[in-house]
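Example 9 (inverse folding). The structure is encoded as follows.
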């Protein structure tokens, strides 16, 4: 069972570009039982994983046997182990911003947000992450570059611990 990282993604900038991004972000996915569900935000809508046969060629020279190839690709390109389909929500929309919640396994989706900021260079992305051990992080991306990154320990992580 993974440690979940709670992320809030703030998207600001040109209104038409934000609306286009939100339309593209929506998708459907199939649960293990075969039921099809809607999701307001999916990484695979912007950056879909290649077929497994191509992954074998991409990672042919690497000797990392611990990770399945599809999870390795997702970690390299999304920054986390799995897509957020079924673990995302559109929290609020204002005239100047869209805010999504994204629940990711083990790590924030920094690599994905950096790639997304390349696709939408007129938008500003601010990723606020809360880690299971109580740490927090803020990263800001514009045009494929991170122009701000901050990590800090939350005071709440010390609650219930003996001095």
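The amino acid assigned to each position is listed next.
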């Amino acid at each position: 069972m993974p440690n979940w990282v709670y992320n809030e993604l703030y998207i600001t900038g040109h209104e038409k570009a934000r609306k286009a991004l939100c339309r593209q972000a929506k998708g459907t996915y199939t649960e293990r039982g075969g039921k099809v569900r809607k999701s307001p935000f999916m990484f695979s809508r912007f950056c879909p994983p290649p077929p497994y046969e191509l992954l074998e060629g991409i990672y042919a020279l690497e000797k990392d046997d611990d990770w399945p190839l599809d999870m390795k690709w997702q970690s390299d390109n999304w920054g986390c182990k799995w897509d957020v389909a079924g673990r995302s929500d559109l929290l609020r929309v204002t005239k100047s911003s869209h805010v999504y919640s994204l629940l990711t396994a083990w790590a924030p989706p920094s690599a994905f947000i950096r790639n997304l900021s390349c696709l939408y260079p007129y938008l500003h992305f601010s990723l606020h992450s809360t880690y299971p051990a109580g740490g927090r992080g803020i990263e800001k991306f514009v045009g494929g570059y991170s122009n701000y990154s901050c990590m800090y320990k939350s005071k709440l992580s010390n609650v219930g611990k003996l001095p």
